[in-house]
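pls design
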């Protein structure tokens, strides 16, 4: 696997409306997109920090993954997402190295990326997302 950069950091918040002003007014970042990912039962808000994005996640359903995360652990960093090459190959590679996968097959995340999660039990407690931008990733 060849990771090129941190694609984004996912942060669980109770409310986008409450959290966005902190990022905009205190940190001076600009929210450039808000998108609902129905598959994951979340509404997301994106900010750019260099090549990396901050992805705020608000649950649309208390039983969704972010809803459950917040009720167990409170607001905070939820996952880290690495941009790497061909996601199918990478998933296969890490699985053969004994890493537990949450997604054996990539699915669609926000911004049209193909994403897949590795299980935090295999990654020293960090929910890890691999992502590939197939539209802009011609080398694969
Ligand atoms: Zn993510």
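designed seq:
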């Amino acid at each position: 696997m060849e990771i090129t950069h941190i694609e984004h950091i996912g942060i669980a918040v109770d409310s986008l409306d409450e959290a966005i002003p902190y990022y905009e007014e205190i940190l001076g970042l600009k929210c450039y997109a808000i998108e609902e990912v129905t598959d994951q039962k979340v509404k997301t808000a994106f900010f750019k920090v260099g090549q990396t994005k901050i992805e705020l996640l608000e649950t649309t359903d208390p039983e969704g993954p972010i809803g459950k995360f917040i009720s167990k652990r409170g607001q905070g960093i939820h996952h880290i997402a690495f941009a790497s090459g061909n996601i199918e190959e990478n998933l296969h590679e890490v699985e053969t190295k004994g890493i537990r996968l949450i997604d054996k097959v990539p699915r669609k995340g926000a911004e049209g990326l193909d994403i897949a999660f590795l299980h935090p039990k295999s990654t020293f407690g960090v929910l890890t997302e691999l992502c590939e931008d197939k539209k802009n990733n011609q080398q694969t």
